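anyone seen this seq b4? input:
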Amino acid sequence: GLAAAAAAGIAVLAAATAILHGGSPPSRAGAGRGLVVLALGASPLLIMLLRAQLDPAVNQGAPATWQALADQVARRQYEVQGLWPRQAPAWIQLANVFQYADWQFALGVAPESTASVPRMLVSLAFVALGVAGARAHRRRDAAGFRAQLVLLLSGSLGVAAYLNLKAGPSIGWGILPDAMPHEARERDYFFVLAFWAWGLWAGMGAVALAEARLGRRRARAAAATGLAIAALPALLNWRAMDRRREPDASAASLLASAMLESAPPDGVLIVWGDNDSYPLWEAQRARGVRQDVVVVTSPLLAARWYRDELRRRWAIDPGPPAPEGTMVAHAIRSAGRSAGSENFLPRPVAIAVTVPAEVRARVGGQWKLCGLAWIGASARCSFRLADSIGRFLQDHPAGRFTDNTVRGMLEPLRCPVLAARAAPDSAARDSLAGACNAR
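predicted toks r here
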């Protein structure tokens, strides 16, 4: 959706730029090239439509019709924020853009969310390279320069203005009011087109400076030198964002396996958001872990397509649109083992520790902790991964993270470890109450 929208916006803005600079509207050949770009940008949408026809087990948005596809591209299942009022001060939103740009070029120098002098110096060097590359690009290809400028401005200032994001999770603390909401995660991926545009100019600038230093006659050496300079961000960031190291490498899969193993046989597991839903889907569909468990993502119950999917596949009815806890309660009461069967047998239900405690309170009933989930007070707990989780956490303590995703996954893994020693240890009981009752 982003690619198609960006391609369409770039085509319109490029035409407007040409007219404003005294040029003529695009020729037929130019229009044909623009249509090709639009078709390439729209191709992911066609894949979504074709994939939905096969009714995959994970079918977000269920875009099996053109109308459903249009609804998904328009993000109608969400409360899309308008351009005004701003969800954060404009200067904070722009500061987020520059913060994310700093990460792209020099995160490996200091792999943490806050800025540092060494990392800022490297980022400023790439700002200078980008300026040099833009000037060289304008001299050699004015039309290409204007098109890339449109891409840069649209992908940075345009995206910041249009999306109207809240302050990022790692910015504004101590400056903004404590009650002001922040985004659930860092949103640097929204600005990828701007990073690409500036990266292209930084590469051009590196080659241009190398040519100026080595001379045109040594073009190959200049090009190789420029390429090496332009590749520095990839080398700097390679280790900082390497998910092959622990605990990053195993946190998601261990969390998913532990949550699924916490659920009773043939049970329904209520989970909270992306950080538990996606690992669970991967575990079930790619690794075949506990496919008897029906995973219900609580925040998705507000979406009509998701409620329809639960009714059709599992005979789980969350009821009409209502507060989240109310729909979870409806889903639990309606949970059945055999969709469409006359022998309607209730499924046992578990609620992941990542689900806010107020949702569980709204559901009502008595619950006890079993691994990484709360189960009915009368249900039998057969969770057997506490020891292996304890060893993993001992061997790979949480360190400093640029993104809190891994830390957010390690936190609920502490629940079975805390539960094992909570009885004789009052400090462990206090930690258990906080870590395993999401707020």
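Residues 1-5, 337-343 have pLDDT under 50 and may be disordered. The beta strands are 268-271, 294-297, 349-352, 367-370, 373-376. kinda curious what u guys think
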